[in-house]
Design brief:
- This protein is of the alpha/beta class and about 625 residues long.
- It folds into 3 domains: about 350 residues, FAD/NAD(P)-binding domain (3-Layer(bba) Sandwich), CATH 3.50.50; about 100 residues, Succinate dehydrogenase/fumarate reductase flavoprotein, catalytic domain (Flavocytochrome C3, Chain A, domain 1), CATH 3.90.700; about 110 residues, Fumarate reductase/succinate dehydrogenase flavoprotein-like, C-terminal domain (Methane Monooxygenase Hydroxylase, Chain G, domain 1, Up-down Bundle).
- It is built from 15 helices and 21 strands.
- Strands 2, 3, 6, 7, 8, 9, 10 and 17 form an 8-stranded mixed sheet that branches.
- Strand 2, helix 2 and strand 3 form a beta-alpha-beta unit.
- Helix 2 runs parallel beside helix 6 and helix 5 packs across helix 12.
- It starts with a helix and ends in an 18-residue tail after the last strand.
């Protein structure tokens, strides 16, 4: 990586003492499922600020058509969900994490129901569970067919607003509460530029963030604990299902603050997005294939029958790669999704039916042209079993984090589940930053051995990325000076850089990769960075490009380092999985090469992976 990536600590010059000061106990950056669930949990032990980059309708959560995977059928088991997660993750799933997440799922989804979340049910009131790629059983909970994410978002927003005292977006003043419960303030349309640390030394604690609001300008938000839940990085690629605000900001600011990022090569491409000239890459949910839709080649043949025993319901990496190969065999001619035989399509999937109608398509009569697109960032900020990063005071949850749950490829509909579980965990555990320095959160139910009463989740102090100690938080504020001098180097057009980067990533770091193309794209990114990261910008469009370049450089280098094919990382020049790479690759600021961490396994389960089935 060009030295500029390691030299730039903050995106803008500032003196903290000259800016408005805001204080809270917990700062949560992100307004999706993980951030909102963390807000509910952290409000139990102090005051909270939720910082949302846009509005709540444009998070990755709100855009999610697929459902939430969890065991609610008497014919299903926790064991089966766990095994499906491991199979999809292709050898890199941290087994204790997977066990804990699938075990906790039913309880947290029941909680959502108690808060008013709607789900698709039959006439008797029983959940109508769907099946998606990689799942052995029907265990996917949906709302309005293809609007599950929007319903989860609505439910959590309503819950958070019941705890909210201010939604103005900022303004100086205000102090965090002491012991006991607190209130939640929501700052929407507020951009987090960087995490605050008292110095640039390794291990310097995060003390909040410097933010920008269109009305209030730059602000220093000081927090005893900061939770990053800022979502994904889909805008790195020309073809993506993600909303425009998914520009990798969380991973980039964590990297600049000294946190470790892991498994950045693994980016999941959703197999089926609408592929029409002039149309955005609208997601065609996997639930449609779960309902029986077929993938057809140009001759009308179901080619997935020749690829995998689960055919269209194979894991997403297998289906996406098969589509790309099929298109190549057909000299660029596309593939289609056949839903013509699905009874009641419009009723089951009203959102998708409405999108198709805009382009003159009727799923009951027409084939739907589809193509893969970047969908989910599997890698991210490395955390331990409690969402802690290796920087004191900083936690991560949701898509921005790399917890070890997904391994080399995420199992369908496990992402909303992970956001719920780790949102609750981080929101609870971060109370330790107000404590006397204990590594175990007060009132979290943990006993210090890694068992939380719901299942074995490993020793929370065992991970090599864990810092030597947490809490209590360093008293704030402290004087921070970011002194960045104007650059004399030539300028590039930001719009051109952004467009060229996204195109280069799609062509060279997309579904099919080679060492030569990865090496070339690393050179391209370094060139753009030398003339972009050296500049000072005064609005989010510039800061987003700087963040995209930073994470693109890490992603491409991780893909170049991993000289094998595994999960959603396909190297045409290294087509075989290798035991040498049965490790997590960890990337840190000031290091040109990764360090590695072994995958966590469960040698002997403390008890069988079964649990009472909750029939909602």
């Amino acid at each position: 990586m060009d030295p500029i990536f390691h030299q730039r600590r903050y995106l803008i010059p500032f003196r903290s003492s000259l800016l408005p000061q805001i204080f809270t106990d917990t700062l949560i950056i992100g307004g999706g499922v993980a951030g909102l669930r963390a807000a509910v949990a952290s409000a139990k032990h102090g005051d909270v600020i939720v910082l949302a980059k846009g509005d709540f309708k444009n998070t990755n959560t709100a855009w999610a058509q697929g459902g939430i995977a969890s065991v609610f059928d008497e014919r299903d088991t926790i064991q089966s969900h766990y095994e499906d997660t491991l199979t999809a993750g292709a050898g890199l799933v941290d087994e204790p994490l997977a066990e804990m997440v699938v075990r906790e799922g039913p309880r947290l989804i029941e909680e959502l129901f108690s808060w008013g979340m709607r789900a698709d049910r039959d006439a008797s009131g029983k959940l109508m569970l769907g099946r998606e790629g990689g799942h052995a059983h029907h265990r996917i909970i949906h709302a309005d067919g293809d609007a599950t994410g929007a319903e989860v978002q609505r439910t959590l927003v309503d819950k958070v607003r019941s705890l909210t005292t201010d939604t103005s977006g900022g303004g100086a003043g205000g102090t965090g509460g002491g012991g006991g419960g607190g209130t939640v303030r929501v700052f929407d349309k507020c951009f987090a530029l960087d995490l605050i640390t008292p110095n640039d030394q390794p291990g310097a604690p995060v003390m909040g963030a410097i933010t920008h609001h269109p009305k209030h300008g730059l602000q220093m938000i000081w927090a005893k604990a900061t939770i990053l839940a800022s979502g994904g990085a889909g805008q790195l690629f020309r073809e993506t299902t993600n909303p425009p605000q998914a520009t990798a900001d969380g991973c980039a600011m964590a990297f600049r603050a000294g946190a470790t990022l892991a498994d950045m090569a693994f980016t999941q491409f959703h197999p089926t997005t609408l592929y029409l000239a002039g149309a955005s890459r609208s997601l065609i949910t996997e639930a449609i294939r779960g309902a029986g839709a077929y993938l057809l080649d140009a001759r009308g043949h179901r080619f997935m029958l020749d690829v995998h025993p689960l055919a269209e319901l194979a894991p997403r990496d297998i289906v996406s790669q098969a589509i790309v190969r099929q298109i190549s065999r057909q000299s660029g001619e596309g593939v289609s999704l056949d839903c013509r035989h699905i009874v009641g399509f419009e009723k089951s999937f009203p959102g998708i039916a409405a999108i198709l109608k805009k382009f003159g398509l009727d799923a009951g009569k027409d084939l739907i042209p589809v193509h893969p697109a970047m969908h989910y960032m599997v890698g991210g900020i490395r955390t331990d079993a409690f969402g802690r990063t290796d920087v004191p005071g900083l936690y991560a949850a949701g898509e921005v984090a790399s917890t070890g749950l997904h391994g080399a490829n995420r199992l369908a509909s496990n992402s909303l589940l992970e956001g719920l579980v780790f949102g609750e965990i981080t929101g609870t555990v971060c109370a330790e930053m107000k404590s006397n320095g204990s590594r175990t959160a007060t009132g979290s139910g943990t006993n210090g051995t890694g068992t939380n009463g719901h299942g074995h989740i490993g020793n929370p102090t065992s991970s090599p990325i864990s810092p030597s100690g947490f809490g209590p938080a360093r008293p704030a504020p402290v004087p921070i000076v970011s002194d960045i001098r104007p650059s004399d180097l030539g300028e590039l057009d930001l719009t051109d850089v952004r467009s060229s980067l996204r195109s280069a990533m799609w062509k060279n770091v997309g579904i099919e990769r080679t060492g030569q193309k990865l090496s070339s794209v690393c050179e391209m990114i370094d060139f753009w960075a030398r003339y972009t990261l050296d500049k000072i910008f005064d609005d989010p469009s510039g800061w987003e490009v700087q963040n995209l370049l930073t994470v693109a450089a890490l992603l491409a280098r991780s893909a170049a380092w991993r000289e094998e094919s595994r999960g959603c990382h396909l190297r045409l020049d290294c087509p075989t999985p290798l035991d040498t790479f049965l490790v997590h690759d960890l990337w840190q600021r000031s290091r040109q090469q990764p360090i590695t961490e072994p995958v966590q396994t469960i040698q002997a389960h403390p008890r069988p992976l079964t649990a009472p089935v909750l029939l909602a």
